[in-house]
Amino acid sequence: MTTVLETEEHQALRAAVSALGKRYGHEYLTKVVAEKSHPTELWAEAAKLGYLGVNLPEAHGGGGGGIAELSIVLEELGAAGCPLLMMIVSPAICGTVIARFGTERQKQEWLPALADGTRTMAFGITEPDAGSNSHRITTTARRAEDGPDDTPPADRDWLLTGRKVFISGVDIADATLVVGRTADARTGRLKPCLFIVPRDTPGFGRRQIDMELHGAEKQFELTLDDVRLPADALVGDEDAGLLQLFAGLNPERIMTAAFAIGMGRYALSKAVGYACERTVWREPIGSHQAIAHPLAQAHIDLELARLMMQKAAHLYDSGDDVGAGEAANMAKYAAAEACVKAVDQSVHTLGGNGLTGEFGLASLITASRVARIAPVSREMILNYVSHQTLGLPKSY
Q: Who wins on pLDDT, 159 or 154?
């Protein structure tokens, strides 16, 4: 039996998205960032063509595919120089969690709008003092004690209190899927739960974080001061929060890999084009092995990272959450490393031109590091692999 990495439909999707990306390109995204605007035109056209909701259920307006298809979309937009960061957050994390665990009302309210791009959702997990340790999340949810005495506990409102940092796109998102913790009535221990918090909910504040990295999607600190939410703001089962949380984190890692691979491919294509044309002595500089070999190595690393990303997406879409967890972490690690190396080598290939606005590579020096840091650091991935895969003892 022959294993097909990508079907003809996948290849056709790549070609179509690539054509869309090339019509916009890096110049479009640079202009959007300079104007402190948002890539609304590209977002709307990608949605109209069905690309934003390709992973969401057909019954709720999506394409009926999976993370494999959505990662192709993001990678090809990135390779064209115009990736959409909110694709990682809105359809991949939030859309997936709601599709798998949301109530029928939540699915009807959110999924068609996420698929057609008319609404977006942010994802709030990171906290100032928790870092990569999700067990230290201090944002808590408790049931409101006011209201009619005969109201069943399960029908009482929620009160959400806490802080979040480095939350992307809150200013444009219609709601944020916030990770909080509630007390288990049986054990008293805190367990993770997810809540849909509309943007204009009283007590839900935001402050933009001043970043050296200039991107179309802004980063925010959130404050939740007894944010009152209806009982049905809870996504899924109160006792299955950890499963639901990781159902969103695995797609996040796979999509971050796609983001990094696309960026690396864009940088590499610029370097290869330059190396084929730039002549200092008699031959183009690309004929020299000192130029050619590092670019070839960068290409190999990106291709290897893509293979792991495809494996992770396949495992996730087939329902193997445990296998996908390992592969998604490895894919994210490999893609981040490959992206950084590709960007660095591309800038070196262009020399001084690699730092000019004309070629659009200098800004990627900083941007490429994002995949090493977010949504989880490479060191924590190495911890995961050493503990979960190799069975080595924990250091913490």
A: 159
pLDDT in tens, 336-381: 999 999 999 999 999 999 999 999 999 999 999 999 999 999 999 9
Q: How far apart are the first and last CA of the chain?
A: 44
Residue type, 153: P
In the chain, how long is the greatest CA-to-CA distance? 88
Q: Which of 115-124, 180-189, 333-342, 376-385 has the lowest mean pLDDT?
A: 180-189
Q: Is the pTM of this model over 0.85?
A: yes
The rounded distance, in Å, linking the Cα atoms of 233 and 264 is 39
Give the phi and the psi of residue 394 in degrees, each rounded to 5.
-75, 150
DSSP one-letter string for 113-136: HHHTTS--EEEE---TTTTT-GGG
Q: How far apart (Å, rounded) are the C-alpha atoms in residues 241 and 334?
A: 29
Report d(CA 221, CA 85) in Å as an integer: 18
Query: Which residues, 6 or more positions from 165, have their beta carbon under 8 angstroms from its beta carbon?
Result: 126, 127, 128, 209, 221, 222
Nearest residue to 312 via CA among 67, 76, 143, 87: 67
Under 8 Å between Cβ of 67 and 6: no
Residue 250 CA to residue 390 CA, distance in Å, equals 20
Least confident of 87-101, 116-130, 151-165, 195-209: 151-165
Beta strand extents in 113-231 (DSSP E only): 121-124, 140-143, 158-168, 175-183, 190-198, 204-208, 219-229
Residue 147 pLDDT:
67
Q: 104-113 burial, b for 16+ CB within 10 Å, e for fewer?
A: eebbebbbbb
Measure the CA–CA gap between 330 and 382, rounded to whole angstroms. 9
Residues 6+ apart with CB under 8 A from 13: 54, 69, 72, 73
Cα separation, 335 vs 69, whole angstroms = 17
Helices H, strands E: what count in the chain? 12, 7
| Dist CA 164 CA 128 (whole Å) | 7
pLDDT of 1: 38
